[in-house]
Every structure is written in C-alpha cells, then in structure tokens.
Amino acid sequence: MIDSKIVCCYLYPITKYGYPPLAENTLDYLDEMHSLGFSAVELEGIRDEHLNKVYEMRFNIKKKFEELNLTMPYFCAVLPGLSSMDEKERNRNFALFEKGCEIASFLGSKGILDNGPLPPFKFPNEIPVVRHYDEDSLRFAFLPEDFSWNKFWDQLIDTYKTLCDIAAKYNLEYQIHPAVGVLASSTDGFLCFANSVKKDNLKFNFDTANLFVIKENLILSYLKVKDYVNYIHISDNRGLKVEHLEIGNGNINWGKFFDVINKNNFNGYFGIDIGGAESGVKKLNVAYISAAKFLEEKWLKLN
Fold it and tell me: Domains in the chain and their CATH numbers?
C-alpha cells in the first residue's frame, strides 16, 4: 500500500463523476481509491445537501474505513456562504461547518479544510456551485451598493476567529485552501489574513498548481508560509490557466521545490490533487499512482 502520508484527494472522484459527485456513492469512491493502493484519502462535504448526506453516512463511512484500513487526515467542508454579509446565512453556515467538524473528528482527521473566503458578491441566483471562481463564474457578480470594505473585513475576521474556535473544540486545524477568485489565496494574502485572525490552529493548504497559476514563486512562497503548512496539494500547472496536471506535464520545477521542502524537513501530508474538467487528464489512475511513486522517491525516502 502507498504510505499514509500520501493522500488521494477528493478531486479523484470529482474528475470521474462530476462536481459535486453524488455523496450517496461515497463508499464506492473509497473502494476505488483503496484499489489504487491508497491508505489515506480525502473526502468533502460540498454545501448543505451534500455535506448533510455525508454526515448521515458517517457511521457507514467509518465502518468502511475500518474494513479497508483507511485514514482521512483532512476533511473538506466547502461552504462559500461563511463569508456572507447576511447574518442568517452566516449562522446557517456556522451550523454546517460544525457538522463538518463533527465528521472530521468522528473519522479521526487532523483538520478541516475549506477554500479561502469568497468576497461578498451578489449573484442573480445562488452562488455558483464551482470549484474555482474564475472570470466566467464571476461575470454576473456584483457588490452591494452600500458595501464597505472595512466593515466586511472586520466581520470576516470575527467569523474566522469563530470558525477556528469551533474547529479547536474538536481538536482540529482549520486549513485555508487557495483558489482563484477567493481571498487569502496568495501567500501574502494568507499571511495578512492569519495576522488578523491570530489563531494557532489556522493553517495554509499549500496547493502547488493554484499558487503557480497566480505567478507565485513556489520556493519563496513555501518559505514565507512554511510555519503554517503541514498539508500540500500537489499537481502540475503550465502557468496559463487553472489546471491540475499530471506531475511533469506542466512547468513547475519539481527538483528545486523538493530541495527546499526536504531542506526544511517538511513532515506533513501530500494530497495528490490531479484532474478536474479543466485539466484533460486522460489516464487518471495512472496519474495518481505515478504521482505517489514520485513522492516516495522525491520526499519519503529522503526524510
């Protein structure tokens, strides 16, 4: 089996079955990830209906974990409504977040993860159900006429202090995942955000592809935020658009990246995060198995 420090991310079933993949089929996804050789997996709860279904299934999921000897270091609760300026919407999402923390704790996770906060855009209908808020997703978005950045920022920081406290109640880290279109998605943005939130369990999920596409130097970026990083999402990128490519199919200099990772004794987890409709990965199983072998050679054997 693949070392439990190397995680099969939820992007695997997303790529195979669409976004979001049916929560009802979670046990099948676990069988599929295990069949590739993974002993550590990532699951997600995507907004209310999907997250609530995972919550309902948590006992069956735990039974499947025990049957397959799986672990889940991090659980993702995708809740863009947490940054809403509407108090009722925030409170509704606080309750969903707490359910996510219950799932994570019950299944033995170290932390809970979500995208960085979405700016308080208004949409003609609901917030689009997308993984990245790119130009197409935000084409019809607008800010409220009475929008005040200072008021929003103060409220946002209070919200994330509360979220960190909820996570801490379950002995969980709270990982912020960088994605196009959200706040705190650059390393400088995250450091500013973390300096305001001031919570020890706030961490940064270092996503190589998402940082590379916004023109971050991954070596410098890692050194800036390394004290906040114990979970790295790994995939390649060409620097032209959002994509999560097979290792070696993009322009990331992996030799230099792993030199700095190993020199600084990174001892957390790597999540293999390859695929998505934007990436055109044709041999998904091969991509995940090859990435795991790559990590064993470049990282595990040297640490």
Answer: 6-302 (3.20.20.150)
